[in-house]
Design goal:
The protein contains 16 helices and twelve strands. The chain has 334 residues and is α/β, with parallel strands linked by helices. The protein has three domains: 101 residues, Rossmann fold (3-Layer(aba) Sandwich); 100 residues, 3-Layer(aba) Sandwich (Rossmann fold); 77 residues, NadA-like (Rossmann fold, 3-Layer(aba) Sandwich). Helix 13 packs parallel to helix 14. The radius of gyration is 20 Å and the shape is globular. It binds iron/sulfur cluster. Iron/sulfur cluster (SF4) binds next to helix 5.
């Protein structure tokens, strides 16, 4: 069999993909966590980019907004959110009467941190007649100053649905440019933020992987740069990647241009398919350090000690909820 010119790691099998806990330790922790979740009336939510062992223990795995909506709908009074800070904030904003816990307060997000309330105020002053559309990967303060939020799945529908022709899109420039191309009837000014995990990937990296697997289907997240999006067969949100695979029943191999944690869900749903992270090298580029800051020990301790409880000031929560609920009301194909 011909070997590829460079090593392609399997992110499911690779030990670099999980924590350094042994299988026996994981089994004990899983038992403790399940018992504590029941005792504390807690639902465990995990983002698609979390460590496989954390995804495995969760009641629900998905994208940030989908999980926040689930948190509001489920009967449990406590939401244990395995993700990053802005995601736990969104869960709290949509379910203000529930207790929301984030196991590690250091789990932030470079993209969310790329825009502050003050910098958005400055941009709004520069573009006073623009409607502000803010990606959910942002702080509650920034959401509260926005007209409406969007996700990577509904960003084009949200922009299309607005009566204003002029749009200020924040904070992700790559997603904003992708939306601007999809909705040419709008004038979109794009803020200069990005997710470094997606922004660092280049078409040359993806083409290198493709050269080793020429028959592979390329699936890219719209937080990737335009050169990557241009060569992708499918451009979609993490959750939509699961259905994108179904659109290619003949394909056996998929090159995935997003954070490598999603491969756990893809492999679980399609065990007979092969998924290769677009950089061809786990931990080189498509690895979000913030998303890997929660392990099973932290999940157990968060449940046991009720930490770290997420609070959002009432006035900020009210503004952010308005922007989120306005988005939720937009039909997907608007
Ligand atoms: Fe933020 Fe990017 Fe990490 Fe997502 S992958 S949490 S957008 S830094």
């Amino acid at each position: 069999m011909t070997q590829p010119a460079f090593p392609i790691h399997d992110p499911v099998a690779s030990p670099q993909c999980g924590s350094d806990l042994s299988a026996a330790e994981v089994a004990v922790l899983e038992g403790e966590i399940r018992a504590l979740a029941k005792e504390k009336d807690a639902v465990i939510l995990a983002h698609n980019y979390q460590l496989p062992e954390v995804q495995r223990i969760a009641d629900h795995v998905g994208d940030s907004l989908g999980l926040a909506v689930i948190g509001k709908q489920v009967p449990q009074r406590t939401i244990l959110f395995c993700g990053v800070h802005f995601m736990a904030e969104s869960a709290k904003i949509l379910a203000p009467d529930k207790r929301v816990l984030l196991p590690n307060l250091s789990a932030g997000c470079s993209l969310a941190d790329s825009i502050t309330a003050e910098s958005l105020e400055d941009w709004k002053a520069r573009y006073p007649d623009h409607a502000v559309v803010t990606y959910v990967n942002s702080t509650a303060e920034v959401k509260a100053l926005s007209d409406i939020c969007c996700t990577s799945a509904n960003a084009a529908s949200v922009v299309r649905s607005l009566p204003q022709k002029k749009i200020l899109f924040t904070p992700d420039k790559n997603l904003g440019k992708w939306v601007a191309a999809k909705v040419p009837q709008k004038e979109v000014v794009v803020y200069d933020g990005c997710c470094p995990i997606h922004d660092v990937l280049r078409a040359a990296n993806v083409n290198r992987v493709k050269a080793a697997k020429p028959e592979a289907v390329i699936i890219a997240h719209p937080e990737c740069r335009a050169d990557v999006v241009e060569i992708a067969d499918e451009v979609c949100s993490t959750t939509a990647m699961l259905s994108a695979v179904e659109r290619h029943p003949q394909a056996r191999t998929f090159i995935v241009a997003t954070e490598h944690g999603i491969v756990y869900q893809l492999k679980k749903k399609f065990p007979q398919k092969e998924f290769i992270v677009a950089d061809g090298c786990i931990g080189c580029r498509m690895h979000c350090p913030y998303m890997k800051m929660i392990d099973l020990v932290m999940v157990r301790d968060a449940l046991k000690r009720g930490k770290h409880e997420i609070e959002v000031p009432a006035d900020v929560a009210e503004g952010a909820r308005r922007a989120l609920e306005r988005m939720i009301a937009v039909p997907r194909d608007a």
